[in-house]
Amino acid sequence: MRGSARGGKAAGGRCYGRPMSLFESTMADQFHAEGFLSKAESKQLNIIRDMRNRAAHPSGAIPTAEEARFVYRAVIDDFLSLT
Asked: Which residue from 7, 62, 72, 76 has the fewest beta carbons nearer than 10 Å?
């Protein structure tokens, strides 16, 4: 099963047979729809995901230190601290 997922883990940029970006987007939308994330948190998560995608893929984007600090702060303060 080349390029597919086994046991929920991504392989070859795919998860459950779908492109990983689609899986991440759907998961974020589902978290918002089920009330796990507010509209603001969902928007913040999408901003972070977009920044990550621009930096991780051959887009020519060169993230700044300020952008990296923003992502770390947002992830730690807004998501990892949710308990």
From this structure: 7
13 token code pair:
């940029």
Task: Tell me which DSSP letter residue 18 carries.
Answer: E
User: Against a cut of 0.70, is the pTM above it?
Assistant: no
Mean of the per-residue pLDDT values of the chain: 75
Q: Helix or strand or coil: residue 17?
A: coil
Q: Tell whether the model's pLDDT for residue 6 goes beyond 70.
A: no
Residues in CB range of 61: below 8 A, 6 or more apart: 54, 55
On whether the CB atoms of residues 37 and 45 are closer than 8 A, the answer is yes
16, 52: one domain: no
Q: In this structure, are 28 and 52 located in the same domain?
A: no
